[in-house]
Design a protein that fits this description.
By secondary structure, the chain is an all-alpha fold. The chain contains eleven helices and no strands. Mean pLDDT is 87; it is low at 1-5.
Length: 224
């Protein structure tokens, strides 16, 4: 049996840093703590990363790459309400995987100019995607709202998605890292985002959404 190639030290530093940032908050973790947990010298860590900000920026690059790779709508046809539902679940799974960005967002942005500029671009892109989804449904006669309402809905959907984990942390900080608790929280977050467009849905899309909602609410009721 062939032995697996040992993972590069740089990758292991990133994996451990992500776990520590997620579990304890990025402001509470230093490069010294990361080196100690890795059982390597600070000098070895600084060989791979200049400072903690360099680690954070590298993790953010990973985050962007995963977004671009995983979160894509089907090609050759317009996205439907089922696609949107799936897209939201994948988005929230990524947000959970890199949750320290969202939990410590305001603090990170005040200290990291590069992150500030890039995150602003991501928010603008998400608003653009949400707008295009609404306009696509409207063009098919499955959504009824004027341009001003579409703009407000797209912004509100992104606001809820961005700050949902912060809201959940305030609600239940002691269980924030429990997998079952957060799995339910992420499902609620998806629902809270997409339910905002429900009053404007028409036709088949409205029927599909109501079926998805009923299935979700029944699942939540069984688990509670």
């Amino acid at each position: 049996m062939q032995n697996k190639t040992p993972r590069r030290t740089r990758d292991r530093i990133l994996d451990l840093s992500l776990k520590l940032f997620n579990d304890f908050g990025e402001p509470n973790i230093t490069t010294t703590i990361i080196a100690e947990e890795m059982s390597i010298s600070p000098g070895n860590l600084y060989y791979h990363f200049r400072n903690k900000e360099d680690i954070v920026n590298s993790l953010f690059i990973q985050f962007e790459e995963e977004i671009n790779k995983k979160l894509a709508f089907p090609e050759g046809r317009k996205a439907n309400i089922q696609d949107i539902w799936t897209y939201l679940h994948l988005t929230f799974e990524l947000i959970w995987r890199y949750r320290f960005f969202y939990r410590d967002l305001n603090d990170l942005l005040t200290r990291n100019r590069k992150l500030e500029l890039t995150f602003k671009q991501i928010l603008n892109h998400k608003i653009k995607v949400a707008t295009e989804l609404c306009l696509g449904l409207r063009a098919d006669g499955e959504f009824e709202a004027d341009d001003i309402t579409v703009e407000a809905l797209a912004t509100n959907m992104v606001v809820v998605a961005t700050y949902w984990l912060s809201y959940e942390y305030v609600r239940n900080p002691r269980k924030y890292t429990e997998l079952q608790t957060m799995s339910e929280s992420l499902a609620r977050g998806c629902y809270q985002v997409i339910v905002q467009i429900s009053p404007y849905l028409r036709g088949h899309t409205k029927d599909v959404f109501e079926k998805l909602s009923q299935d979700y609410l029944l699942k939540i009721k069984r688990e509670s």
